């Protein structure tokens, strides 16, 4: 049993949306195929992975550094003790050989993308959905019913409050109970946007807001004073993701739930947020995204760090809207997952036929991560592996 090839293609996920920090006019992602020599149900097992929106494709790093390390390794050194499957942690250690600690940059995205493909292959070789395999490995009961919220509400050229309200209404109509919109361009611009959306939701769903790290401390506090007038689900990523002191000071002005973490890429960074960021385990939310942060091998270390610090995995609702985090949520008891109903297709979303009801989806029993159940996605994946 061995990995015979690691393929990467950088694909566009561009659109005309913008958050308070970046626009998505040139956004890309990396799609990876880890091809094995294992055959299941008459088909060669190929694991697939991709990185979430926001950090661009990582083709250079994957092709020049990480894929060659896997292909040059002794194939037996990448297997589990029984020799009947790949071992994700041994593969992870091989990927990270001769990498210094710290300074996570974007190698964490390259590794996270390959790691997703490896876990997909491992669960397919085991003949199980990844969420069931994870629950078994951790001695837990899987829960296929997962909370999901609808992320959107971007700044959009020519889009006024009426269109924003219509967008949010469409998420309500599709079964979501929590929706999210962007803020950060200024209190004067955002207050009427928020009030318009809250009117549209009319108490039938809750609203989260996301400043994408745009605000300095003074502006983050000014926003907090405005936002705390409204019953929001959370106030996300107010300031720079690595400014733990800003987050901690903000907590003093914002008693309602805060959320952050999508731009922290290692368990060490996550631990610093917990130690120094003033985040409160009884109400705040952690959004670390394995696809951007060295993958599930690292995410399990992050969950250990959280546990040690008294945080439940149910306080985690990852960024990114991919099926990988849906599996982690169902298998390891996270609080839910992000979803972008109208963006970043065909990568995001759910297997065909999965519907949102009362803000939750139910995972179908598909082997691996479940990409084979999403026809538009598996088509581009198989094109890469062909
Ligand atoms: O706009 C983005 O970069 C995505 C984002 O922050 C989110 O989904 O929370
Ligand atoms: Mg965000």
UniProtKB/TrEMBL annotation:
It holds the Pfam family MR_MLE_C. Keywords: Magnesium, Metal-binding. Substrate binds at residues 19, 53, 100, 154, 180, 236, 262, 319. The record marks 53, 180, 338 as: Transition state stabilizer. The active site is at 182 (acceptor), 319 (proton donor/acceptor). InterPro entries: D-tartrate_dehydratase, DgoD-like, Enolase-like_C_sf, Enolase-like_N, Enolase_C-like, Mandelate_racemase_C. Its cofactor is Mg(2+). The keyword Transmembrane helix does not apply. It comes from the Bacteria. Residues 161-257 form the Mandelate racemase/muconate lactonizing enzyme C-terminal domain. Mg(2+) binds at residues 210, 236, 262. The record marks 289 as: Increases basicity of active site His. The keyword Isomerase does not apply. GO terms for molecular function: D(-)-tartrate dehydratase activity; metal ion binding. Binds 1 Mg(2+) ion per subunit. This is Mandelate racemase/muconate lactonizing enzyme family protein.
């Amino acid at each position: 049993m061995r990995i015979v090839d690691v393929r990467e293609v950088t694909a566009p996920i561009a659109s005309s949306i913008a958050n308070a920090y970046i626009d998505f006019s040139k956004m890309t992602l990396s799609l990876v195929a880890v091809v094995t020599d294992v055959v299941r149900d008459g088909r060669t097992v190929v694991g697939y992975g991709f990185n979430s929106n926001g950090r661009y494709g990582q083709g250079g790093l994957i092709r020049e550094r990480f894929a060659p390390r896997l292909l040059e390794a002794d194939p037996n050194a990448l297997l589990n003790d029984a020799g009947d499957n790949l071992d994700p942690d041994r593969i992870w250690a091989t990927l990270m050989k001769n990498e210094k600690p710290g300074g996570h940059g974007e190698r964490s995205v390259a590794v996270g993308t390959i790691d997703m493909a490896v876990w997909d292959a491992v669960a397919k070789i085991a003949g199980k959905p990844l969420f069931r395999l994870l629950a078994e490995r951790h001695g837990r009961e899987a829960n296929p019913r997962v909370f999901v919220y609808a992320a959107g509400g971007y700044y959009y050229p020519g889009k006024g409050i009426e269109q924003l309200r219509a967008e949010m209404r469409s998420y309500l109509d599709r079964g979501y109970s929590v929706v999210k919109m962007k803020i950060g361009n200024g209190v004067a611009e955002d207050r009427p946007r928020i009030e318009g959306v809250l009117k549209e939701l009319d108490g039938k769903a809750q609203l989260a807001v996301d400043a994408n790290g745009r605000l300095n401390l003074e502006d983050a506090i000014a926003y907090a004073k405005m936002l705390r007038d409204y019953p929001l689900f959370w106030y996300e990523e107010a300031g720079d993701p690595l400014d733990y002191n800003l987050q901690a000071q903000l907590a003093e002005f914002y008693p309602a739930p805060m959320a952050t973490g999508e731009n922290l890429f290692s368990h060490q960074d996550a631990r610093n947020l917990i130690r120094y960021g003033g985040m409160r385990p009884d109400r705040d939310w952690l959004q670390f995204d394995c696809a951007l942060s060295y993958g599930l091998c690292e995410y399990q270390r992050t969950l250990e760090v959280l546990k040690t610090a008294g945080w439940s995995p149910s306080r985690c609702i990852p960024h990114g809207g991919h099926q990988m985090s849906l599996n982690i949520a169902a298998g390891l008891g996270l609080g839910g997952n992000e979803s972008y109903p109208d963006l970043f297709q065909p990568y995001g979303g759910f297997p065909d036929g999965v519907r949102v009801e009362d803000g939750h989806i139910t995972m179908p029993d598909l082997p691996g991560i479940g990409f084979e159940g999403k026809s538009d996605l598996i088509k581009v994946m198989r094109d890469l592996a062909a």
